Amino acid sequence: MTYNDENLCRSICKGNRYAFEVLIQRWEKPIFNLAYRYLLNREAAEDCTQEIFIKLFNKLQKFNYDSSFKTWLYRVATNTVIDYQRKQLRYREVSTDDFVMEGLRTDSEESVEDKMENINRINAVQSAIKKLPKIQKHVLILKEFSGMTFDEISESTGIPISTVKSRLYTALENLKKEISRQYQGGEI
Amino acid sequence: MKKAYKEKIIDYLYGEMTKTEKKEFEKEIKNSDVLEHKVEELKNLRFFFNEFKDFEAPDFYLDRAAIYNNISSQDSGFSLRRIPLLGKAAIVLVAFFLVLSVLRTTVVLNDDGFKISFGSSIADAGGEKAAGINNQMIIDEIKKYIDDKDNSQRMHVGKLVDELDKRNDVRRRMELQAIYKDIESLKINTQARFLGTEVTLNGIINYIYKQDNIKTVQNAGGI
């Protein structure tokens, strides 16, 4: 038996804890990254990732193997992140990390000016993504940062592929406008 | 811009076109300044995303996930759907004899007040031998699902609490405790529903945990 995700799920449902650990190890990084893209706060992303895996475990019996595990997982994950964000907004605003310092590719050859330039750009992009409407942000993050195919996004979100594409286009357009407005250079 | 073009641009940018489609679209781009400008703008924007690298999950993350795995999997221990058929049959038998035992219940009086025990049926550990099952088997079965699992759960939660204490992370510690409490109470309720009544369950737990130092008072009428 090969240990693909679906087989692991079956094994977990039979009570195999180790299988769940393998599944977590396999998916924790992409899911953490997904949560981070939404929440922009490492601590909140960690908390939320925990929640996602707990929810995943509790919902696993409902997984019917019709869709791929990946699309189902991302559906659970994005719903959990959105709920988490809503809860956070109700109680307190999650502060955004000084994201650039850890998110920036480091290149020792870069001059200080170049680095500062990159930091400004990244801040502008990050802040623009934050302002996108929910569904646009959703599609952008899943495509651009989680590397999902349009089929997978469509399956995961329940939106037709052509709508996914047009939402993504609008998201990119909105990002461009917002960044141009924010970024001092006017163009990116 | 028309929806069809938006989709084409997206397909082009994300490499979703066939070679022929790509060639044709590139021709269109060359013939339209507006289209060319639009594609270039979005290309630049996408290029810019490459500046972001994936965020590494923290080193301690795996351990915490494993611990949460143990916490949440407590729920699975009592899901009938996850128990094989023979196991279900055994549990039904156990539940049946538990009900029989409760009908012949004994109230146990210790320092905390009245608790329920199986009185003579547990005390002589042989009342149901004729039916192929004895009280020790019942206790073992219950222990397997309640006692042992609780111990491992506590151990893992303890580890995590220690970790959070070390980090002085009061908020997450509180959250963890709240989650743990919820799961624990859900588990107890699930067990209670399965076994009959919560009173019976508490009686069993009390019996298991407080076998020492108990005085018994016979109670013919049950609870």
Written overview of the protein:
The complex is a heterodimer of chains A (188) and B (223). Chain A is mainly α. In chain A, 74% of the residues lie in helices and 0% in strands. Chain A has helices at residues 5-13, 17-39, 42-59, 69-91, 99-103, 112-131, 134-145, 150-157, 161-182. In chain A, 37% of the residues are buried. With 223 residues, chain B is mainly alpha-helical. Chain B folds into two domains: 3-49, no CATH class; 81-212, no CATH class. Chain B is 67% helix and 6% strand. Chain B contains ten helices and three strands. Chain B has helices at residues 3-13, 19-31, 33-49, 61-77, 85-103, 120-123, 135-145, 147-166, 170-195, 198-209; strands at 106-110, 113-117, 215-218. The longest helix of chain B is centred in the last third of the chain and has 26 residues, at 170-195. Classes of the chains: A mainly alpha (188), B mainly alpha (223).
The rounded Rg of chain B comes to: 31 Å
Q: Name the poorly predicted regions of chain A.
A: 98-106
Mean pLDDT figure of chain A? 79
Lateral arrangement of strands in the main beta sheet of chain B:
2-1-3
Query: Roughly how many Å is the radius of gyration of chain A?
Result: 18 Å
Domain unit count of chain B: 2
Note the overall shape of chain B: elongated
Biggest sheet architecture of chain A? none
State the assembly state of the protein chains. Answer: heterodimer
Structural class of chain A: mainly alpha
How large is the count of helical segments of chain A?
9
